[in-house]
Amino acid sequence: MSHLLELRHLKTLAALRETGSLVDAAERVCLTQSALSHQIKELEGRIGASLFVRKSRPLRFTQAGKRLLSLADRVLALVADAERELNQLVHGEAGRLFMAIECHSCFNWLLPTIERFRGQWPAVELDFAGGFTFDPLPALAAEEVDLVITADPVALKSVVYLPLFSYEMQLALAADHRLAGRAFIEPQDLAEETLITYPVDRDRLDVFTRFLRPAAVEPRALRTAELTLMAVQLAASGRGVCALPNWVLEEYRAKALIAVKSAGATGVWPTLYAAVREESVTTAYVRDFLSQAREHCLAQLPGVRAPRGGAALAFDYWEN
Q: Which branch of life, at top level (predicted)?
């Protein structure tokens, strides 16, 4: 029974549980679907049991699969802790990590990562800078901040964009809205609507740059809300339509407080990035913070997925 299990097996099973599908799990661990299927069959052959029920929706693990997942939770956490400690020994553990966030819905998932990070890197000074009128990317290039969370990369000298995850921008409206019965929303549907947005420039709003502007559509009126909860409440009360990330809207949709629709037949899927200066890419505590943030989001935020294509490759480059 020696060498029955390998670390890659545990990572694959964890990815399969978190994504719920072979396709998405393969992306998560940077394999083709065929290679991932082969790896799972090989492991099942080694242990002599199936790990999950094929074609089950949602995915259901067998007792053998659940036992290995329990092992994965313990082992992968220990490996991550050991890698972190080694990084601290090799690269030192003190530094500064000032953050700015262009994604105004990101604080909820950032806070658990920050709380855990503080305990693991106590000598790293953490702080936030920003506000709706603050322009963080030039501040990053000028070394006023060290990390920016953004969905709108801008080419700047010495600034690198590391993809965290992709999400769907969805449209929220009152449950009894005239568009609530639609399968999805077309740009022209918003021509007679009040659009509720954050008080930022249109060039920083996906609903304009990726949805309305390409169709040359202008909403009837524009209303701003600084708080996400306020935007959702305005939409729920029939005072307009707001565009927010799918992970934000899922809680309210599940409670039937709002109707949630995709923007177009295939939806709008931006990618959220962490922007850092080029010299910070190899800084141990920066790498660890972003690894923890990405891992937390992919595991906990409903509806998000690993970046596809070039974005995923860019993150792999960063990790290596």
A: Bacteria
Residue whose pair of structure tokens reads 């322009």 in the numeric block: 135
Whether pTM > 0.85 for this model: the answer is: no
189 part of a folded domain: yes
Residue 186 forms part of a structural domain = yes
- Residue 54 banded pLDDT, cuts 50, 70, 90: confident
In a domain, 142, yes or no: yes
Residue type, 291: S
- Residues 197-208 have a mean pLDDT of 90
Q: Which residue has the tokens 């990562």?
A: 113
Is the peptide bond between 58 and the residue preceding it cis, with omega within 30 degrees of 0?
Answer: yes
Domain CATH number, residue 130? 3.40.190.10
Range of the domain at 66: 7-84
Same domain flag for 77 and 146: no
Q: Are residues 11 and 80 in the same domain?
A: yes
> In the beta sheet, which residues pair with residue 124?
95
3-class secondary-structure state, position 148: strand
CB–CB of 182/261 below 8 Å?
yes
List alpha helices for 133-200, DSSP H. Answer: 136-141
The 10s digit of each residue's pLDDT in 104-136 is 677 778 888 888 888 888 888 888 875 555 688
Helix axes 107-120, 284-300, angle to 10 degrees: 140
Handedness of CA 167, 207, 109, 230 (dihedral sign): negative
Could you tell me if residue 24 is inside a domain?
Answer: yes
Residues 282 and 150 in one domain: yes
Give the whole-angstrom CA distance, residue 106 versus residue 123. 24
Q: How far apart are CA 152 and CA 158, in angstroms?
A: 16
User: Are 101 and 66 within one domain?
Assistant: no
Summarised one tens digit per residue, pLDDT across range 58-109 is 888 999 999 999 999 999 888 887 887 777 656 656 788 999 887 767 777 8
